[in-house]
Design goal:
single chain, 244 residues, alpha+beta, Nuclear Transport Factor 2, Chain: A, 9 helices, 5 strands, 46% helix, globular
């Protein structure tokens, strides 16, 4: 299953992605303002504004130095996305505390931790490639953000709703799940774009990939970028978007 181009564009305009994966060319990111995580609504507003400004500036240099653009985007996105939480959710049972506790040896536990860490890096790279490039091709003409109350809201969990109107006067709805972390402040843990739950889609794709490769979780982790970007490049898209 592949997320629609429209959903990808909205997702990026809403300022959610992830930091540049390890192993990319060494670059020095430009200065970025510190994003306060004390209030989730203000956090999202700041991140959105800064990302859109970065993408606008990048149009002047990105054809010569794309890694510079990626690095600048990463400085912002790393402040608002809980990639470790998201990666464990995508891996599901393969990264669960229950699975870890069932391991018998230190070597097995070490391999488990290493596998999860490698997947975080791979997931970061996939999101950067899929979404950071799309950010260059779109821009929100008007963006409204509201904190909404759901049955899951509590002192350490909340939901945000963002409505984006693009240059073609189409509107899109993006919903964020956010939670407080031990270090203090809020982070984004999942995103739903026009009813498409990104966490669920990635989790389904990960499980399917493991099944398709004879249960070899390490193979899927180590080839995640290839599986997600190259092998699915011709997969049918989910179309979505209000006003289409």
């Amino acid at each position: 299953m592949k997320i629609s181009v429209a959903a990808i564009k909205v997702f990026l305009c809403a300022a959610v992605a992830l930091m540049l994966a390890a192993g990319a060319s060494a670059v020095t990111a430009g200065p970025a303002e510190h994003i306060s995580r004390a209030d989730p609504k203000e956090m999202l507003r700041q991140a959105t504004a800064e990302l859109l400004e970065i993408s606008k500036t990048a149009r002047d240099y990105v054809s010569e130095d794309r890694e510079r653009y990626y690095a600048d985007v990463s400085v912002v996105l790393d402040q608002v996305m809980d990639i470790q939480y998201f990666a464990r959710g995508v891996m599901a049972a393969y990264a669960s505390a229950r699975a870890y506790k069932a391991l018998q040896t230190d070597a097995e536990r070490s391999a488990f931790r290493d596998r999860v860490a490698r997947f975080e890096i791979a997931l970061k790279r996939v999101w950067m490639v899929k979404y950071a490039d799309a950010l260059l091709r779109t821009g929100g003409e008007s963006i409204d953000i509201a904190r909404i109350k759901t049955g899951n809201d509590s002192d350490d969990r909340a939901s945000l709703e963002q409505t984006i109107r693009d240059s073609n006067n189409q509107t899109y709805l993006v919903q964020y799940s956010v939670h407080k972390v031990t270090e203090g402040g809020w982070l984004i843990s999942n995103v739903i774009v026009e009813g498409i739950n990104l966490g669920e889609i990635y989790r389904s794709q990960f499980a399917e990939a493991v099944e398709n490769h004879s249960g070899d979780v390490d193979y899927v982790v180590d080839h995640w970028v290839e599986l997600m970007i190259h092998e699915q490049s011709s997969a049918p898209e989910i179309t979505s978007g209000v006003g289409k």
